[in-house]
Each structure stands twice: as structure tokens, then as C-alpha cells.
Specification:
Layout: E1 5-8, H1 28-31, E2 37-38, E3 45-46, H2 47-71, H3 100-110, H4 117-122, H5 125-129, H6 133-138, E4 146-148, E5 156-157, H7 160-172, E6 180-184, H8 190-203, H9 217-227, E7 244-248, H10 252-255, H11 259-268, E8 272-276, E9 286-288, H12 293-296, E10 301-302, E11 306-308, H13 315-332, H14 340-346, E12 347-348, H15 350-357, H16 362-369, H17 373-385, E13 389-393, H18 395-398, H19 403-416, E14 426-429, H20 436-441, H21 450-460, H22 472-481, E15 486-490, H23 494-497, H24 501-509, E16 513-518, E17 531-536, E18 544-546, E19 549-551, E20 553-556, E21 561-565, H25 579-591, H26 599-604, H27 606-616, H28 623-626, E22 633-634, H29 638-642, E23 652-653, E24 669-674, E25 679-680, E26 683-684, E27 694-695, E28 700-703, H30 705-711, E29 718-723, E30 729-740, E31 747-751, E32 776-782
The chain binds iron/sulfur cluster.
Iron/sulfur cluster binds at residues 75, 82, 84-85, 87, 98-99, 101-102, 256-258.
Length: 792
């Protein structure tokens, strides 16, 4: 029998006892996982601890002056946009428009600690590979370009000119432009994203994977196919007008904390809130708003009126069951429940949906959801009572095999009662990275539609490639198979973020050249190709001065509001280039005069980039003027603004989706990956997850107490977590602590990115190709000591 390949957890977290890093947000890292403490989950979020956890690390990490300059400018109209999540800003802003996690993100980026030239001599790449994400990030800001030659184990400093020359030589030496892939992270500004995709298409490929491939791709697909636009159909103000807000598969208290303020305002205006999630999360239980007296010294606001503890992957069944009840209510009282006028004028597919939902098997719904009939009845009754309903969601819905179909069921439910295109109602995917939506608008997509490519051709006089390119999963496959030889990333940490860590790292190591444009180190600088370049860039907080003066950039938030972002503090090093400058210089080095684009002008004056955006990107006409309006502007959105649906039929589509849910074999659990409170995406700020009662460690797997008993495991027992897939690879997380936690029965959770090890690369959502990180079948067994395990 061929022995299985074994892939196990790399050092993402706090599993090392090494020398001290220069600045410490949390000394726990150096102590290792043996110091892990398990307490009780909290029943409320924010309050005074939220303020302390914002300000103390900021003051310690940046000092008084830099903290004041950054925190007070954050999310202000003349300040910079928080580089963390994509939560929108209210029109009337307060002095403090940030949350604990925004403050951590700023502290992380604006730290004055820098990496000097001697670092590269002291730390070979093989050493960086053994370090945790936390340690890598804590080394400070990157300050100069560095290059690792083939066969060398060290990065060595070099000039910018030499860096661009090397990269241009490599790219121009490829047999085909499609042998290169150009990744983008959601931090990239609109201006840099537009210039980047233009360069990539002028170079000759549509290989533009991005972080959206791994998060809200399912939302984009589902919404595009049903209402014609893959974006939220609400504005910020709609939260305050809603009667009911259903928050699905989402943990705002950690991932978009200022959303709690919007939910609190909605409650004060009379809205009900329903939380649908396998785990109870503190922020959706009670919120102590630190900007209100009742949040500081009072009880705060009780948030969710109903907690629907759905099983992982059961959301699709739940939504179908609620829609079934809506149709039953209509059948009982014809003409009084559905929004007939809206359905007649604007929608298509009601008959087919009605016939399909008539077949829904309540037994299957209860098995899929793990709920009682009464829970679903209660949710349906709330939905039927409300005139204006918003449904928001995040990764808890998108990262499932049936993620696209599940979101189509959200659209079905909303359409039935006309909850799209009226105040206080709509669909709202909540994006997790500040400009991930804007980057898409600017053309960062491997499948941009012909209209966009035609506009590029008209504006710049070259014919961009028309064949679809590779997304993130396909890029890893391409690297693995040798189809992709050069991988460049404008920000981000693809090997850290994507599924199947063992496969992804092996694939990346097979590249001929890897290139990272970054502010700080992460795992993607340690797992690299034969040759590797690191190009250091300015952060969002930093002043960006070019030949024509100080520049601003622009970003789009999760509700399609576009606004400017001005850096406020001096860059940490003189040799940093902005992302726009890096792309422009790279384009000149690679393309020369091949296309008629004024790359020099792009770098000198970002208004020139915006002028072209005006001509190419739909909804961005007169961009330079609109972006200078007070607070920016809202991109047009047919479903939201006028109930016009840019689908092939011009109607919103009610869709029929066959119910499917995960059936776990006896003795297994369904595991989801999730973030701790001390992290943002793959960036680990510290090793506590205080809302869930975890301190000084990350190697935990949360399991329902009854499941622990059933599996014969004790609370806090050391365990190994094995992925259950029959593809010849044993995927395992070794040496984790089983933590008794009130998650839904049969469901478990472990932190991302550590749990990525367990998700096979080909385990993706139908249609969107998003890694299925919320539905991993695992076997949890007592930890066993093993001899050195061969890795891939
Ligand atoms: S809610 Fe999101 S965007 Fe707003 S300050 Fe917090 S992390 Fe930043």
C-alpha cells in the first residue's frame, strides 16, 4: 500500500520559545502553547476592556504622538480609511471612529519598529520558515527591497532599479504571459488596483487572483445571477430603518466591531435582531458601546432577540424552511403576505420556486439545521411581522460547498416580500478586508466582463486578453503543475490564507520566482520560489508625497460608498515606494513603450489614474470631482436605487436550489475555521481570544460538551484533529487542546489559518471555487506522540 503523504500544522501560531522580538503586544507568544488558559466565554463585547485593548497597545507600540495622529485620523473624512475590515462610516462622524481591532491594525502597520539590513544576514529563509506568523509580523516594517537568488538561503538588499530589472527580465523571459499570476490583497487602493490590472492585462494575461476568491466569491456569484450585481443593496443608513436584521454566519464583535454600533442604533429604533450561527458570539449577545454611558458603567444593549443555533451547513435548509412558511402564510391568506406588485413587476420564477418549496421535507430540514420546528417557526413569524428586513452574512455562509445556493436562498426569501430596493431592507454581504470590493470594481478579477475589457481597449488602445484567467485556487494548482512559474502578490499572504497549507506551500516552493509587495513580513515571505523578491511599500497611514505633491487614494466599503484616504504620518523609512509607484515602475520596466499608458504620469499624480478610471469603470464617471465631495460618493446600484435588475431578463430571479447538507459519519465532527479576537485574516496580533475565554494560545478545538462525552474525550485533553478525506493525503493538526464549548451539536471550530491544513485544495464551493473552510469533516482523537513526520 502506498504510504499516505502527511501534512500537518506549520508554525502559524505561538508554538515556539525563541528570543524576544522588538516590540510586544502580547508576551504570550514566547511562552508557547503550554501556557494556554481556558476560561468561560464572555456574554458581552467591547465596554471598557475594548477601549483598553485599543489604546494600551497603540501607546506601547507607536508612542503618544504617532498614536494620536493615527487614531484620531482613522475613518475621518480628511483622514485615512481603516485598513482592517470594510465596514462603512456613518455620515456624522465622532472623534473616535474606530474599534479595538481597527486600532490593532493601525498599531500593527504604523509601528516605528523597522527591519534593518543586518536582519537578512542573521535570518536565512530557512529560519523564517520556522517562525510563527506572530513572530514574523513583530519584526517590524520592511524598509528596503531584498532579493533571494536561486540556490541562496538569504535575502539580500538591492536597489529598486535592480529589483525591477530582475523582475522584468523574468517576466519577459516567460514562454507565455499566462505563466505568471498576479495576486491582490484587499488592502490595495482603487488607484493601485486599477494601475495593476492595467499592467497585468497589457502584459497579456487575466491571471488576477485575489483574496475575494477565498471569501465572498460565493456572494458575488449568487447575487450576480439573481439580482445582477454582486454587492450589497443597502446603504449604512438602512440599518437604522430596518424592522428586522438577520445576521447569518457572522461574528461582528470580532470581525467588524463597529457594526455593533449600527445594530444598537437599529435596536433603539425598534428593530429586532436575529443571530444565525453555530456558535454564540459575545457581540451578538450584549454590546457595551464604549462611547455611551450605558456601555461604560451600565448594562449595555441586549442584541439578538433570537439566537438560531444552526448546524454548520444548515443555513440553506433553514432559509428554504422560512420561505416555505412565508408561502404557506400566503396560501392561508391569499394576497396579504407576498409583495405581489413587486414580484409581478420585477421578478421571475415565483411559480417554479413555489412548486419546489412545496417539496421541502421538514425532516430533512431538521436534520440539516439541528433545530426544532419551533425555532424555525419563530424566525418565520419575525420575518412575516417585519415590513423592512435586512439579511447580512459573511464567511459562515460563503465557505460551504453549497455557498452560492445558500445565498440564492437569501435572495429568494428577501424577494418574496419585496425586501430589496426599499429603505431599511436588502441583502448585505459584509466584506472582511477594507478595499476588497473596490479592487473588484477596478478590474481585479480573472473574469472581468467584455464591457470592461472593451473600455480598456477604447481608453488605452490595446486589446486586453479575453480568455478568463486563474483564481486563487487555480493559481495554486497552476504552481503545483508547473503552469505558473512567476507569482507576484500586491499585498496579502496567499500561502497563509488559502486552504490545504501543505499543498499550497509545496506549490509555492515550485515557482521559479515569487514576489511580495508588503509592509511587513508574513509566511508568504518565508515559503518562496527559487528566486524571491520583497518590495516594501508605504502603509495606508503614511503620507504619500509624489512629484506633484501629497496624494490621496480611494477605497470602496461594503455598502458601495467610495471615499478618499489620506496618509497622516511620516513613512517609517525613506526608501519606501507607494503601491501606485511600484506598479508604475514595474510596468515601465516590463512593457517599455509597448502600450500607450503614461506610467510616469500615474506615479506623479494619482488624479491621472482617476481620470482613466472615470472613462473605464462603470459608475465612476467624473471620479476626480466625486471623490472630492464631502465624504465621497455612493456607486450606483440598480437593485438598491430603482429596483432595476441588470440580469439577462431585466428581472430579479427567484431560483430553485436542490437542498444538500453535510451528513457526518459516526464518530466525526464538522469543523469550521474562524478568527480569534486578536487577529485579522492571517495577521496574529496576540494570543488571546478573550470573548471565547481563551488566553495565551491558539491551538484549541472547540467542541460541544455532549460531543466530547460521545467521543470519549475530556475537556482540555490534548488531541489530534484528522481531516477525513480519501485522497491519499493525511491532513492533521497535532497537539491541540479540546475545549468544551457551547457550539452546535456535531460541530467544532479551530482557528484560521492553522485549520487550513485540514481543507483539501479541491474542496471548494460549487460555482465560486471558494475553499470550503466551514465544512471540514474531522476525526478528533487523543493526541499521540509521533516520530518525525515527513512533510510534503
Ligand atoms: S469596524 Fe472594521 S473598518 Fe471599522 S474601525 Fe473596526 S476594523 Fe476598522
Amino acid at each position: 500500500m502506498t504510504p499516505k503523504k502527511v501534512t500537518t500544522n506549520p508554525p502559524f501560531g505561538a508554538n515556539q520559545a525563541r528570543e524576544k522580538s522588538p516590540v510586544h503586544l502580547d508576551d504570550a507568544d514566547e511562552a508557547g502553547e503550554s501556557t494556554l488558559e481556558v476560561g468561560s466565554p464572555k456574554s458581552w463585547a467591547a465596554g471598557v476592556p475594548g477601549v483598553l485593548h485599543s489604546t494600551i497597545p497603540a501607546l506601547a507600540g507607536m508612542g503618544v504622538s504617532r498614536s494620536r495622529k493615527t487614531l484620531l485620523a482613522m475613518n475621518q473624512k480628511d483622514g485615512f480609511d481603516c485598513m482592517s475590515c470594510a465596514w462603512p462610516d456613518p455620515t456624522h462622524r465622532k472623534t473616535f471612529e474606530f474599534c479595538e481591532n481597527g486600532a490593532k491594525a493601525v498599531t500593527w502597520e504604523a509601528t516605528p519598529v523597522t527591519i534593518g539590513s543586518e536582519f537578512w544576514a542573521e535570518h536565512p529563509v530557512s529560519d523564517l520558515r520556522d517562525r510563527s506568523e506572530y513572530w514574523l509580523g513583530m519584526q517590524g516594517r520592511l524598509t528596503e527591497p531584498v532579493y533571494k537568488a536561486a540556490g541562496d538561503d538569504h535575502y539580500r538588499p538591492l536597489s529598486w532599479a535592480e529589483a525591477f530589472r530582475l523582475l522584468a527580465e523574468k517576466l519577459n523571459g516567460l514562454d507565455s504571459p499566462d505563466q505568471a499570476a498576479f495576486y491582490t490583497s484587499g488592502r490595495t487602493s482603487n488607484e493601485a488596483a486599477f494601475a495593476y490590472q492595467l499592467f497585468v492585462r497589457a502584459f497579456g494575461t487575466n491571471n488576477l487572483p485575489d483574496c475575494s476568491n477565498m471569501c465572498h466569491e460565493s456572494s458575488g456569484w449568487a447575487m450576480g445571477q439573481t439580482i445582477g450585481i454582486g454587492k450589497a443593496t443597502i446603504t449604512y443608513d438602512d440599518f437604522g430603518k430596518a424592522d428586522l436584521i438577520i445576521v447569518m454566519g457572522q461574528n461582528p464583535g470580532t470581525n467588524h466591531p463597529r457594526m455593533l454600533t449600527a445594530l444598537e442604533e437599529a435596536k433603539e429604533n425598534g428593530a429586532e435582531i436575529v443571530a444565525v450561527n453555530p456558535m454564540p458570539e459575545a457581540g451578538l449577545r450584549r454590546y457595551k458601546n464604549p462611547q455611551k454611558v450605558k456601555g461604560i458603567i451600565g448594562h449595555g444593549t441586549e442584541m439578538a432577540d433570537q439566537f438560531v443555533q444552526v448546524r454548520l451547513g444548515g443555513d440553506m435548509a433553514l432559509l428554504q424552511a422560512v420561505s416555505t412558511r412565508v408561502l404557506a402564510a400566503e396560501a392561508a391568506n391569499p394576497g396579504t403576505v407576498l409583495d405581489h406588485e413587486f414580484l409581478r413587476e420585477h421578478c421571475q420564477g415565483l411559480e417554479e420556486l413555489t412548486a419546489h418549496l412545496a417539496q421541502v421535507d421538514e425532516k430533512a430540514v431538521l436534520a440539516a439545521t439541528g433545530l426544532q420546528t419551533a425555532d424555525i417557526d419563530e424566525l418565520a413569524a419575525r420575518y412575516l411581522r417585519a415590513e423592512k428586513v435586512i439579511i447580512t452574512w459573511a464567511m459562515g455562509l460563503t465557505q460551504h460547498k453549497k455557498g452560492v445556493a445558500t445565498i440564492k436562498e437569501i435572495i429568494n426569501l428577501l424577494l418574496l416580500r419585496g425586501n430589496i430596493g426599499k429603505p431599511g431592507a436588502g441583502a448585505s454581504p459584509i466584506r472582511g478586508h477594507s478595499n476588497v470590493q473596490g479592487d473588484r470594481t477596478m478590474g481585479i478579477w480573472e473574469q472581468m466582463p467584455p464591457a470592461f475589457l472593451d473600455a480598456i481597449e477604447r481608453e488605452f488602445g490595446f486589446d486586453p486578453p479575453r480568455e478568463h484567467g486563474m483564481d486563487s485556487v487555480e493559481t495554486i494548482r497552476g504552481l503545483r503543475d508547473g503552469r505558473v512559474k512567476v507569482f507576484m502578490a500586491l499585498g496579502g499572504n496567499l500561502v497563509g490564507a488559502i486552504s490545504d497549507t501543505g499543498a499550497a506551500e509545496a506549490a509555492m516552493r515550485g515557482a521559479e520566482m515569487t514576489v511580495q509587495v508588503s509592509t511587513k513580513l508574513n509566511r508568504s515571505h518565508a515559503v518562496v520560489g527559487d528566486e524571491a523578491l520583497i518590495l516594501p511599500t508605504k502603509g495606508r497611514t503614511e503620507i504619500d508625497r509624489q512629484a506633484t505633491g501629497e496624494q490621496f487614494v480611494s477605497v470602496e466599503d461594503t455598502v458601495c460608498a467610495v471615499h478618499p484616504s489620506w496618509g497622516k504620518v511620516r513613512p517609517v523609512a525613506p526608501n519606501l515606494l507607494s503601491e501606485v509607484a511600484i506598479v508604475s515602475r514595474l510596468a515601465r520596466a516590463v512593457l517599455g513603450t509597448k502600450v500607450g499608458v503614461d506610467w510616469v504620469g500615474f506615479e506623479r499624480d494619482y488624479d491621472l489614474v482617476r481620470e482613466h478610471i472615470s472613462h473605464v469603470v462603470a459608475g465612476c464617471d467624473d471620479y476626480n470631482a466625486k471623490i472630492r465631495q464631502d465624504g465621497g460618493f455612493l456607486l450606483p446600484n440598480g437593485p438598491r436605487d430603482s429596483r432595476t435588475f441588470p440580469t439577462p431578463t431585466g428581472k430579479a430571479m427567484l431560483t430553485v436550489n436542490d437542498l444538500e447538507y453535510l451528513d457526518r459519519p459516526v464518530g466525526t465532527l464538522i469543523l469550521q475555521s474562524l478568527r480569534s479576537h486578536d487577529q485579522f485574516n492571517t495577521t496574529i496580533y496576540g494570543h488571546d481570544d478573550r470573548y471565547r475565554g481563551i488566553k495565551k494560545g491558539r491551538h484549541v478545538v472547540f467542541i460541544n460538551p455532549n460531543d466530547l462525552v460521545e467521543l470519549g474525550l475530556d475537556d482540555e485533553q490534548m488531541v489530534d484533529v484528522h481531516g477525513v478525506y480519501d485522497d491519499g493525503v493525511e491532513r492533521v493538526l497535532r497537539g491541540f487542546r479540546a475545549v468544551s464549548y457551547p457550539t452546535a451539536r456535531g460541530c467544532a471550530a479551530a482557528y484560521y489559518p492553522e485549520a487550513n491544513v485540514l481543507v483539501p485544495l479541491d474542496h471548494v464551493a460549487e460555482g465560486s471555487n471558494t475553499p470550503v473552510s466551514k465544512a471540514v469533516i474531522v476525526r478528533v482523537e487523543p493526541a499521540r506522540t509521533v516520530e518525525a513526520v515527513p512533510t510534503m
